[in-house]
Design goal:
Layout (H helix, E strand, L loop, with lengths): L1 H18 L8 E14 H6 L3 E13 L2 E13 L9 E14 L2 E3 L3 E18 L7 E16 L2 E15 L6 E17 L1
Antiparallel strand pairs: 1-2, 1-9, 2-3, 3-4, 4-6, 5-6, 6-7, 7-8, 8-9
Length: 191
Amino acid sequence: MRFGTVAVAGLLIAMSAAQSQEYQHKVRLEVRPFAGMYVPSGVQGDDFKSATTFGMQAALELNSYTHVLASGGLTNGHSKIGALISDQSKMWQFDVGAEFNALNELGSHYLLRPFVGVGAGMRSYSFKDSGLDTKSCAAGYGSLGSELQRGSVAIRLEGRGFVTCFKSPFNSETTFRSDMSFIFGLAYHIT
């Protein structure tokens, strides 16, 4: 519930800031479904396997070079933690962030928008074994990608590198970890 409040507040602040700008660009909403691959690294790779991930982003295009966004995603994964009876796990990722892009015209119909982004939020881990509570912790990310747009529709490729804290499902031990997601998505620009 706290995440939803923070996400809505962030989007409202961004909208009011955009409206106070002197440029004539209209703030536009984008809806971005995505699917891809979750790839754990380092210690995270010792405890989890690569898995599919999917989710949705909502973004506000403040001007031709800046977006604010909220994302939610689910990774249906498999744990390598030996003490678990079932290896099935779910990771829920929620975050808010910003993207900064270049804008290149490709002919008269296409726009190429390479971008970098940054954001923060939380990740929750849920394990199938009974008696284990869902654990949530802070997460931050940096992203790199590109969007190829024609009219109001675009295809997107994005790589995100995450730094997260991880709370053990068995005790109160908390560690910091890293992983990546490589996603393919669509963007629909609502005018």
